[in-house]
Amino acid sequence: MTEHIDVSNIENLSLAEFTENAYLNYAMYVINDRALPHIGDGFKPVQRRIVYAMSELRLNADAKYMKSARTIGDVIGKYHPHGDAASYEAMVLMAQSFTYRYPLVDGQGNWGSPDDPKSYAAMRYTESKLTGYSKVLLSELGQGTAEWIANFDGTMEEPLVLPARLPNLLLNGGTGIAVGMATDILPHNLNEIVSACVHLLDSPKASVLDLMTHVKGPDFPTGAEIISSPEEIQQNYETGRGSVRARAVYSIEAGEIVLEALPYQVSGTKILEQIAAQMQAKKLPMVVDLRDESDHENPTRIVIVPRSNRVDIEALMGHLFASTDLERTYRINQNVIQLSGRPGVCSLRELLKQWLEFRQATVLKRLQFRLEKILDRLHILEGLLVAFLNIDEVIHIIRTEDQPKLKLIERFELTERQAEAILDLRLRQLAKLEEQKIRAEQDELGAERASLQQIIDSKARLKTLIKKELLADAETYGNPRRSAIVKRAESKAFSERDLMTNDPITVVLSENGWVRAAKGHEVNGSELSYRSGDRFLASAAGKTNQTAVFFDNRGRTYALAAHLLPSARGQGEPLSGKINPPPGALFTGLVLDEPEQKYLIASDAGYGFVGKVEDMISKNKAGKAYLSVPTGAQSLPPCRISPEAEQLIAAFTSEGRLLIFSLKDLPELARGKGNKIINIPSAAVKSRSEVMAHLVVFQESETITVHSGKRYINLTLKELTHYRGERARRGLKLPRGFQKVDRVVLNP
Q1: What is the distance between the alpha carbons of residues 650 and 593, in angstroms, rounded to a whole number?
Q2: Going by DSSP bridges, is the β-strand pair 547-552/556-561 parallel, antiparallel, or unpaired?
Q3: Is residue 566 within 8 Å of 626, Cβ to Cβ?
Q4: 144: exposed, middle or buried (C-beta count within 10 Å: 0-12, 13-18, 19+)?
Q5: Angle at the Cα of 334 (from 331 to 338), degrees rounded to 5?
Q6: Coil, strand or helix: which one is 456?
Q7: By percentage, how much of the chain surpasses pLDDT 70?
Q8: Alpha carbon separation from 193 to 132, 188, 207, 213, 473 (Å, rounded)
């Protein structure tokens, strides 16, 4: 027989809706009850439970140490339904002075090291108790200041938020990853934060910029420098999001670099590995040795030995900052559980403002709780005074009556609370009551009641009390800033060029495009041997760490690292094996110089411009279209421009015309055709009947020797003045017999 099930009272829910609700509930649980800290005490639930459980075990700063396993057993057994390993790790972090700016747990045994924070011993081997600083979170716990909630299984209660006397959230910072959100709050200096709180109490409308006169920036447990600019830090505090950069601190001792402090949460071992890896890969030729001299007196002391005293230490450290963890960026995302119970990203001002609201509410609860205690005691004292004045009758009633409480209430018009207090005293104590003591206690409590009532009724007095307590705690637990905020130049890693040796070389190019590099600058390319049918075209003197740039007749440039060029012991190698010029292209010249060096670039059509070496360089094997060459024209060899003095341009045409004008008349371009240097009809260029044959850049102090066949003529300044004119003019004819110019030579 089939059993009939009544589904009329069962709620129907679609799978999609059920899944959505389940995921949402899980997400909110992770956000509120696991991953994000509360603005009040700055704790995530597991941290709060560890500290509270230790306080319940009486593990205060003046107590004896207790096995950490015992404490963690209490945490996970009474308050925390998670794993023991996770809880113990949270406890370890709170004990590490290099992780927490103000540690909450005082550990005995192996609690890890700055070099390897996760090298701590198992909980069965370590002992722990609370630090003195933990009092700022626990001292007001039994004074009506905390809201109590049931633990995970409902068998006992735990505080929802600890009544923190200081903004622990900003002091120790916090990290967490929730569902769809995360938090990264950096630690700060206690004195600075307290000073900012006091300022905000005095000036509720204070801006973030005003608060930054007190809070300069984060303050890490380690002594590394914060190198972010004040503007960046202000932006972080304004928005609650951003990043901060920290850099290791070093000094120079006897020519050696000594690392004295590493950035927050950076391992010394990892730094050694990173630098050693670069040394093995021959990317640090200027470093010859690396030592770790760290000990108990100097937790961080890593020594880097440069090759010689000529090494630029500042540049070397700039490279190491850029390429290792010696410089680190820390994310900021001030996402916290706010007083409303909802998560949100807060600015520095909002964080301090909300915490002060929390503190004001906490202090008010504490004062109200104490006032109620005083009023209750005063009420009892009134009853005891009545008992004293009628002591014999009271004792008689207690001894003889079956219901003495009711009789006392009826006879002396006492309240039930007063009657219970009288009955709670032993007869011997009751007989010893003294009016003087009762009235003295009444006076004392009355004065305290009046003082408390004044503070409760006055916002100004309440603020003053909070300020006094904040400054007192700052005096007790505050210490100087550890992370100096310093303006530093941006770190820059060495390029491959920087790591090359800068030995002098001469690059030689032949007409058929064969290239070679000879050591030194004394090499004469025309005296070298060449393959049959080939001869010298051009040469350039430079250094091995520079880039050689080759020009073809179509205005394309090709770049090759000088140290990769073949040796001049042989006849070199064809450029076509290293680059891909278009078919039919012929090489016309080369450049080997510093990136900022300027050259005169021109085509024989009579157009040109001033260009920098860095603009000529291309990473493509096919090169780059650098000079736009008109139809029928070809590019000319580049002319180096001396930066020292004002220079002139001398342009010679194949028809024997010469035009001289100032170099300033030509523009500086990154690429292109350029401006007209000398006027040559375009038809003549196309037919090659007339072209610009030679181009010279010279100073007024120099003379020019023009060679025509075996004859030559020296043109002095006075003679050259005859040929000066405006740019783009036709120029003047050279003397008869020298109009076919074969070669132009400059003489100092």
Answers
A1: 23
A2: antiparallel
A3: no
A4: middle
A5: 160
A6: helix
A7: 98
A8: 19, 7, 15, 11, 12
Q: Which two tokens stand for residue 326?
A: 């010696």
One-letter amino acid identity for 237? Y
Report how far residue 10's alpha carbon sits from residue 512's, in angstroms, rounded to the nearest whole number.
93
Encoded amino acid at 702, one letter = E
Radius of gyration of the chain (CA): 43
Enumerate helices (H) and strands (E) in the chain, giving the number of each: 22, 35
Which residues are CB-contacts of 590 (< 8 A; sequence separation ≥ 6)? 507, 509, 538, 539, 540, 548, 549, 550, 551
Q: Which residues contact 231 (CB under 8 A, 6 or more apart)?
A: none
144 φψ region: left (φ > 0), alpha (ψ -120 to 50), beta (else): left
Place of tokens 């090489």: 587
Sign of the alpha-carbon dihedral angle for 413, 415, 418, 420: positive
In sequence order, which residues have a C-beta less than 8 Å from that of residue 679 and are 6 or more positions away? 606, 728, 729, 730, 731
- What is the rounded CA–CA span in Å between residue 440 and residue 449? 14
Average pLDDT, rounded, for the chain: 91
Integer angstrom CA distances of residue 612 from 353, 518, 559, 593, 640 = 57, 25, 14, 10, 10
Residue-wise pLDDT for 593-610, tens only, equals 999 999 999 999 999 999
How far apart are alpha carbons 585 and 328 in whole angstroms? 50
E strand or H helix at 685: helix 682-687
Residue with tokens 């504490």: 366
| Residue 240 in tokens | 């609650």
Q: Is 599 a catalytic residue?
A: no
Kindly provide the b/e burial profile for residues 113-135, where b requires at least 16 CB atoms within 10 angstroms of the residue's own CB: bbbebeebeebeebbbbbbebbb
Q: Which stretch of DSSP H or E encloses residue 51?
A: helix 45-56
**Residue pair 460/197 in contact by the 8 Å Cβ criterion:** no
pLDDT at 332 over 60: yes
Give SS3 for 365.
helix
Cα–Cα distance, 520 to 508 (Å, whole number): 12
Cα angle 565, 539, 543 (rounded to 5 degrees) comes to 55
Please answer whether residues 337 and 32 qualify as being in contact, where contact means their C-beta atoms are separated by less than 8 angstroms: yes
Q: Provide CB contacts within 8 A for 397, sequence distance 6+.
A: 404, 407, 408, 411
Q: State how beta strands 514-519 and 573-574 pair.
A: antiparallel
AA identity, residue 618: S
Query: How far apart are alpha carbons 226 and 587 in whole angstroms?
Result: 53
Amino acid (1-letter code) at residue 189: N
pLDDT class of 6 with cuts at 50, 70, 90: low
For residues 250 and 257, is the Cβ–Cβ distance under 8 A? yes
728, 678 Cβ separation under 8 angstroms: yes
Q: At what angle do helices 391-400 and 348-389 cross, to 10 degrees?
A: 90
In the prediction, which pLDDT does 510 show?
A: 93
Domains of the chain: residue spans and CATH = 44-163 (3.90.199.10), 249-325 (3.30.1360.40), 364-477 (1.10.268.10)
CA atoms within 13 Å, Cβ hemisphere of 175: 10
CA of residue 4 relative to chain centroid, distance: 68
Confidence at residue 206, expressed as pLDDT on a 0 to 100 scale: 95
Which of these is catalytic: 100, 125, 558, 626? 125
